[in-house]
């Protein structure tokens, strides 16, 4: 069994979450500078100034009003014929669409009909289609997917370039089971509408441009219990969506939150969520009595004056001996330094002690992995 002393081996001690930047004090030695010797200038003869030249009258240049390009004119007869053809085809297919959009989905300069409908069955199946003139194209999920596009009627459909690759994506949202959320992304590959990406989570799936690069990240949430959500972040790499980061967040945004300390992992997660909530008294209360004695509350909280956000992921208990445990995590901290948001990625190992009030954080060893300027911060 591991002793308490081994878990408390010498390391860089911090009684707060790993500080992101250390501000060095600059000491400047100042001493009086001797005044230069003043030499009186030799007077020179005064030359009378020439008479002032007449001030020219400035005539403002005429302001040119740019003429906007003429808006494209749609042929009403062609539009009516397109609508009539689409209605006839839907009737022939026996489809009553839940929603329809008229969008150019294949970059040929001509719009197509994009729609969703619910196919009866046990359970019903959400279907998506493209109607391009006489061509009917179904948007198909993977065959092995349990829920397909979804099992409930909805009109959550978007047509846009979601990842900045210059192509239009068809984004289909779906819902199934008790709380399963689905997201399917299709795009025209020159021959067919291919499935570009598929996501499934039981605590929400959402799109967000979190870094300002004009490409949406996909956030997939999984119920972690105790009002917690484990969120996986997928980022577009130019060809695919790949996992890039994970973090814990709250299932509900209502406050106040209950900070769980029933396990060493929950204590570490709760600490960083409290920091992210700017609930510094709550975060300080999750420190062990020994850590609080070493760092009075006011002094400790002053260390977070520049912190604007914190995220924690990859939280795992790696060992335990009696009432002492070691928990590793990765932390992203965001600080406002002179008006610039500086992000720092930390590898952290916490020593966590069991107290009558629950698990509490004693000390941490940290290793800085990366630092960058977050030019865009939502």
Characterize this entry briefly.
This protein is mostly beta strands and 378 residues long.
Task: Describe the model.
- Among the domains are: 82-213, Lipocalin (Beta Barrel), CATH 2.40.128; 255-373, Nuclear Transport Factor 2, Chain: A (Roll).
- Helices cover 14% and strands 39% of the residues.
- Strands 1-2-3-4 form a four-stranded antiparallel β-sheet, with no helix packed on it. A four-stranded antiparallel β-sheet has the order 5-6-7-8, with no helix packed on it. The chain has a four-stranded antiparallel β-sheet with strand order 9-10-11-12, with no helix packed on it.
- β5 and β6 (169-176) form a beta hairpin.
- By secondary structure, it is mainly beta.
- The model is unreliable at 1-59 (pLDDT under 50).
Q: Report the span from N to C terminus.
A: 47 Å
CATH class of one domain: Mainly Beta
Shape: elongated
Helix content: 10-25%
Question: What's the β-strand tally?
Answer: 16
How many helices in DSSP terms? 6
| Order of strands, widest sheet | 1-2-3-4
User: N-to-C SSE series?
Assistant: HHEEEEEEEEEEEEHHHHEEEE
Strand content: 35-45%
What is the fold-level CATH name, i.e. the topology of one domain? Answer: Lipocalin
For the biggest sheet, the summary is: 4 strands, antiparallel
The second-level CATH architecture of one domain is Beta Barrel
Name the structural class.
mainly beta
What are the segments in which pLDDT stays under 50 over at least 5 consecutive residues?
Answer: 1-59
Question: pLDDT average, as an integer?
Answer: 84
Report Rg: 32 Å
